[in-house]
Design goal:
It is built from 19 helices and no strands. It is mostly helical. It has a single domain, classed as Na+/H+ antiporter like fold, CATH 1.20.1530. α5 runs antiparallel to α14, α7 packs antiparallel against α9 and α10 packs parallel to α13.
Length: 420
């Protein structure tokens, strides 16, 4: 496909992606699912699992091989913009009073599913036929462990925002634990890639680079008031260009050091200065994520082939991953919250929110696929985990609300506002 042919192919692909995402999201909203779940499933619908199985000629015409890297890159732009906005919406002051609980929940939610994932691969991995032949059992186990330990922080943040839970104790606790969880998971993922490459250098680069990022962001925090005053004297177009430039610079840097662009974008959003002019500029960037994140979901869907799960061993492996993911994340976070002294209604809701994998697991899976650590069968199995655990979150919260409605220990009664 020539460059001149690639443009029209991209435009029509985007039209189809956005239309299908809208339709699927609308359908799922009728059963209480957030729009981002519909976008995830729309990506699978457009891939070989549904469209490719029913109309293979249509799928190959809509998404030729040459177009797929373009979808990935443009989808990354959407992810960076989206994660920056998630960070900007994140209010660190709401973590006051829940820091200890958040630390325990984060540690449990990271360690337990990771250990269970490694144990699952050690026990049955070689018999599933889903592992990459040239990748050691250790690397495969560690990757699956980290993938199962990741929390879908953007999904968690969106669910909390849509349900107006940010000022509840369990909402603030989940946000804090999820942010720490994901940061640690990206460092661990860099370690897995380092082991796969036979070098500890990637881990050292990730740790040292992460410390450098913290130092730069700390300086930025000290200069926030000065930056806000400068912004008030700057035109809107210049501010938007400056924001995009800084955002892409941070995304590039965190990608290079192995912490990946989404983490850098979120970190920048957390420390970004506030002023009426800057807030308007951030809101101007928000639609970029809304338009382009579905392209990333479609790219992931094009790599997902559920027909590969048809064999008994792979199907059992998929079921095992789902069980390990739910028990390891929901169970561990619930127990950790209880151990930290949280009431049971709060602990259950923290477990339900932390259990969602969604977007962040898909990011990790695509990186693993590109690195040759993940096979198409393992990719598809873990996509089932991402979809299942994410779809569970909202119904679980609704079920807990119905169960506790009218009770004295309902979390909306026990959880007072934790911040402004």
């Amino acid at each position: 496909m020539s460059t001149t042919e690639l443009g029209p192919a991209f435009f029509i692909a985007v039209v189809v992606i956005l239309a299908v995402c809208r339709i699927v999201s609308r359908l799922l909203q009728t059963v209480g699912q957030p729009p981002v779940v519909g976008e995830m499933l729309a990506g699978v619908v457009l891939g070989p699992s549904v469209l490719g199985a029913l109309l293979p000629g249509v799928e190959s015409a809509l998404f030729p091989t040459e177009l797929r890297p373009v979808l990935y890159v443009v989808g990354q732009i959407g992810l960076v913009a989206f994660m920056f906005h998630v960070g900007w919406d994140f209010r660190a002051d709401r973590l006051r009073g829940v820091a200890r609980s958040a630390g325990l929940v984060s540690a449990a939610g990271l360690v337990v599913p990771m250990v269970l994932g490694v144990a699952l691969i050690a026990a049955v991995g070689e018999r599933t036929g889903a592992l990459a032949p040239d990748v050691s059992l250790t690397v495969s186990g560690l990757f699956v462990g980290v993938a199962l330990a990741v929390t879908a922080f953007p999904m968690l943040a969106r669910i909390i925002a849509e349900r107006n839970l940010a000022k509840t104790r369990f909402g603030a606790l989940s946000l804090g634990a999820g942010a720490v969880d994901d940061a640690a998971a990206w460092v661990l993922l860099a370690g897995v890639f380092g082991i796969a490459g036979g070098s500890a250098g990637k881990v050292s680069v990730a740790v040292a680079g992460g410390l450098g990022l913290i130092a730069v962001l700390a300086v930025g925090v000290r200069l926030r008031d000065r930056t806000a005053r400068l912004a008030e004297r700057t035109g809107a177009d210049q501010l938007l260009l400056a924001l995009v430039g800084v955002l892409f610079l941070i995304a590039w840097y965190t990608d290079v050091i192995g912490l990946y662009a989404v983490f850098g974008a979120f970190s920048l959003g957390v420390v970004f200065p506030r002023s009426p002019q800057l807030d308007d500029t951030v809101r101007t960037l928000q639609p970029v994520g809304a338009v382009f994140v579905p392209l990333f979901f479609t790219y992931s869907g094009l790599n997902t082939d559920f027909t590969l799960l048809g064999s008994g061993p792979v199907l059992l492996f998929t079921a095992g991953c789902v069980v390990v993911a739910v028990v390891g994340k929901f169970g561990a976070c619930w127990l950790a919250a209880r151990a930290a002294g949280e009431p049971n209604p709060v602990a259950l809701r923290v477990g339900a929110l932390m259990n969602a994998r969604g977007l962040m697991q898909l990011v990790a899976l695509n990186l693993g696929l590109a690195a040759g650590i993940v096979t198409q069968a393992m990719f598809s199995a873990l996509v089932v985990v991402a979809i299942t655990t994410t779809v569970m979150a909202t119904p679980l919260l609704a079920l807990l609300d119905r169960r506790d409605r009218g009770r004295a220990d309902h979390p909306r009664e026990t959880v007072v506002a934790v911040g402004p």
